[in-house]
Design a protein that fits this description.
- This protein is α/β, with parallel strands linked by helices.
- It has a single domain, classed as Glutaredoxin (3-Layer(aba) Sandwich).
- A 5-stranded mixed sheet has the order 5-4-3-6-7. A two-stranded antiparallel ribbon has the order 1-2.
- The longest helix is centred in the middle third of the chain and has 19 residues.
- The two termini are 29 Å apart.
Length: 175
């Protein structure tokens, strides 16, 4: 990851608004090495997803209306992802306890990764919401070869799961 450095007032303003500045992943980039705990405390690493297509969907906060809609849309479409062999991971800055309660309450069949340290959002280049400080709802789709297939910068919570499945069909037809 390359960090941009600014001097003086400009740096202070940008860092207050956006947090640490970094380059975002783009199509064709390699999946960065990572390690994070899921809602059960199990460590998930980049080695665990090698050879499998995977979607990392980043969301601002457990139990908020948009994040709940998005999680439930992935839950409802999960059998289609599983049928295609695609791993799904939700990622946000809440702790393990919050993720476990959220996953249990909504019967989520996929892991939620704890990024309370902010490591994953920096590795993946996920944007921060100005002023609020929460990370944006963005996703990264990675191929079984470990290459970024698509980065979703603007996500509609209710329809994102269906959008990813549609995109996967189109990508499969193109190859």
């Amino acid at each position: 990851m390359i960090k941009l450095k600014y001097n003086g007032i400009l740096c202070s303003i940008l860092c207050l608004l956006y947090g640490t500045l970094s380059w975002a992943l783009v199509t064709g980039d390699a999946l960065p090495g990572f390690s994070a705990k899921n809602q059960d405390g199990k460590i998930i690493t980049s080695a665990d997803v090698q050879g499998k297509p995977v979607l990392f969907y980043f969301y601002p906060k457990d139990e908020t209306p948009g994040c709940t809609k998005e999680a439930c849309s992935f839950r409802d479409a999960f059998s289609k992802f599983k049928e295609k062999g695609i791993l799904v991971y939700g990622v946000s800055s809440q702790d393990l306890k919050s993720h476990k309660e959220f996953a249990n309450k909504y019967h989520l069949p996929f892991d939620l990764l704890d990024d309370s340290s902010g490591t994953l959002v920096k590795l993946f280049g996920i944007d921060k919401m100005p002023i609020i400080g929460l990370y944006k709802r963005q996703s990264v789709l990675v191929s079984s070869e470990g290459k970024v297939l698509k980065v979703y910068k603007d996500v509609e919570p209710k329809t994102h799961a269906a959008q990813v499945l549609t995109d996967l069909e189109a990508l499969n037809k193109a190859h």
